[in-house]
Every structure is written in C-alpha cells, then in structure tokens.
C-alpha cells in the first residue's frame, strides 16, 4: 500500500551573488540576501501564513541565504516551526579553482560544464560526471546527495492514509492535501533541480534533462507516493499540487 508525503521545494530569496555583475562561484563564502531578497522571503512567509499552510518539518541548507529564507517562513507561521539545518542541502560546490578564471572566458565554462563542453549552445548539455578542480562536485554528485537526503530525511515521514488522494482535484488547488505530512526544503536551484529529477526519474536507467527551474523565493509543491519493495528499495511517484507559484516580489 503506498505511503504519501507532501514536499515544498523553496529556493532562497535574491542574494548578492544573484545580482552581481561578475558574481563568483564562491561555494560557502558569505552571500547574504539583498534588500529585495528579504522583502521576497518575508512576503513568502506572509502568503503561507494567510493561506494557513501547515508545516510539519522545515529543512534548510546551512548557507546564509537559505537559512534567512527559512527564518522568514518560520517567523510568519503560527507554529514557528524549528529550522533543521542539513549539510546535504548546500548548493553544488564548484571548487576554488574557478576563482582564478575570468567568468566570461571559455576556460571558466569548461571548468563548470566539462572540458569537451565549455559554453552551452543549442541543445548541448553539461557533462554530468565532470568535477571542477579543487573540490568541485559533478551534477551526479549533487544528485546522489539529493537521493540520500530524500531516503534518510523525507521518505521516513510518509504515511499511509485510509483514502487515496484525489490526484485530479489536487491539480486545481495550491493547498496541502489534508492529513498528509508537509515537508519544506529550503535550498538552492541546482540542488533542488537534482532532487526534483531524482524523484521524477526514480526508476529510470538514464538521466533525462528537465526544464525545472526556480526563481528566487519561488516554491513548487509536490505530492509524492512511495511504495516499498521487497529488496528494500522503493519507487516514488510525484504529482504536482496545483500550478503552485508562490513567488512574491517585494
């Protein structure tokens, strides 16, 4: 019998690096929210409070811009949920070598996307196995982090319910389905994209590129059904709740 969990994927508000003319890939260096970013996340928290959105668990990346976004959501919520910080939720690490390169150079893009890819043109895609030098992660590394996080921290909260959710009905509402735990994950665009693709491609033998992308302070909410298998593994089916876009600009 399937178990269900509702997940909201939230990207942090606008941060300094998002608007910098020549923003560096700085991994875990300070990158605070801008004034507009703080307005965004406060308004996001208010919108959730006004719609009486329940939050059972609130996870956040440890990076400043994500923690401050989570704090804004929690501050407006009637229950002021505890923020649980998890290292697994950090953005893709690009390593320190990129600091030496001009952001507009071919070498810079080759360091991110792979030496045989460089700048992305047309339908070309990055090399998912390529790791930038000096501590960088590949996209496959991030996907593995995302899958581990889902298995260890989200899947265990899924529950069985007496009546299967009306999947047709939930597409026309942005409400959390009644009686199903709601997990909020505040993180970064690359990580959240990989988490989304892990869930939607759980049983796929190869990676399929999607157009999943979150703007700053944007959220997308999903209902996930999980079925246990005899080998201890499980498939996951993902159903988006409505056409949710709760990005609120300052």
Question: Which helices and strands occur, and which strands form pairs?
Answer:
Blueprint (H helix, E strand, L loop, with lengths): L2 E9 L4 H4 L15 H16 L6 E4 L3 H13 L6 E3 L20 H8 L25 H16 L12 H4 L11 E6 L1 H12 L18 E8 L9 E5 L10
Parallel strand pairs: 1-4, 2-3, 2-4
Antiparallel strand pairs: 1-5, 5-6
Organism: Rickenella mellea
Keywords: Hydrolase
Pfam family, one: His_Phos_1
CATH topology: Rossmann fold
What overall geometry do the principal axes of the alpha carbons give? globular
Number-wise, the strands total 6
SSE string? EHHEHEHHHEHEE
User: How are the strands of the biggest sheet laid out side by side?
Assistant: 3-2-4-1-5-6
Overall mean pLDDT:
88
End-to-end Cα distance, whole Å, is: 44 Å
CATH homologous superfamily assignment: Phosphoglycerate mutase-like
Can you tell me the CATH class?
Alpha Beta
Detail the poorly predicted runs.
244-250
* CATH architecture designation: 3-Layer(aba) Sandwich
Tally of domains: 1
Protein name: Phosphoglycerate mutase-like protein
Keywords: Hydrolase
Pfam family, one: His_Phos_1
GO biological process, one term: regulation of pentose-phosphate shunt
Distinctive features:
6-stranded mixed β-sheet; Rossmann fold; alpha/beta; disordered C terminus; 7 helices; 250 residues; globular
Protein architecture, described:
Strand 2, helix 3 (64-76) and strand 3 form a beta-alpha-beta unit. Helices cover 29% and strands 14% of the residues. The model is unreliable at 244-250 (pLDDT under 50). Strands 3-2-4-1-5-6 form a 6-stranded mixed sheet, sandwiched between helices. The chain has a single domain (3-93, 138-248), classed as 3-Layer(aba) Sandwich (Rossmann fold). It has 250 residues and is α/β, with parallel strands linked by helices. It contains 7 helices and 6 strands, in the order E-H-H-E-H-E-H-H-H-E-H-E-E. The longest helix is centred in the N-terminal third of the chain and has 16 residues, at 35-50. It is globular and about 55 Å long. It has helices spanning 16-19, 35-50, 64-76, 106-113, 139-154, 167-170, 189-200, and strands at residues 3-11, 57-60, 83-85, 182-187, 219-226, 236-240. Helix 5 (139-154) crosses helix 7. The termini are far apart.
């Amino acid at each position: 019998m399937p178990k269900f969990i509702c997940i909201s994927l939230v990207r942090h508000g606008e941060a300094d690096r998002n608007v910098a003319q020549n923003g560096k890939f700085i991994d875990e260096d300070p990158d605070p929210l801008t004034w507009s970013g703080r307005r965004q996340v406060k308004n996001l928290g208010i919108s959730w409070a006004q719609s009486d959105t329940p939050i059972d668990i609130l996870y956040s990346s440890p990076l400043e811009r994500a923690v401050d976004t989570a704090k804004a959501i929690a501050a407006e919520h009637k229950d002021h949920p505890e923020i649980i910080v998890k290292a697994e939720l950090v953005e893709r690490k690009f390593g320190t070598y990129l600091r030496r390169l001009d952001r507009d150079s071919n070498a810079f893009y080759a360091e991110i996307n792979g030496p045989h890819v460089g700048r992305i043109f047309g339908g070309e895609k990055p090399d998912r196995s390529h790791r930038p030098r000096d501590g960088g992660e590949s996209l496959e590394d991030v996907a593995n982090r995302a899958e581990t996080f889902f298995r260890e921290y989200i899947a265990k909260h899924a529950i069985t319910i007496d009546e299967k959710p009306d999947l047709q009905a939930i597409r026309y509402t942005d409400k959390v389905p009644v009686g199903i735990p709601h997990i909020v994950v505040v993180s970064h665009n690359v990580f959240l994209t990989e988490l989304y693709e892990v869930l939607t491609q759980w049983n796929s033998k190869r990676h399929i590129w999607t157009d999943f992308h979150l703007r700053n302070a944007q959220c997308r909410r999903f209902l996930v059904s999980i079925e246990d298998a005899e080998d201890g593994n499980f498939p996951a089916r993902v159903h988006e709740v409505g056409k949710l876009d709760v990005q609120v600009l300052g």
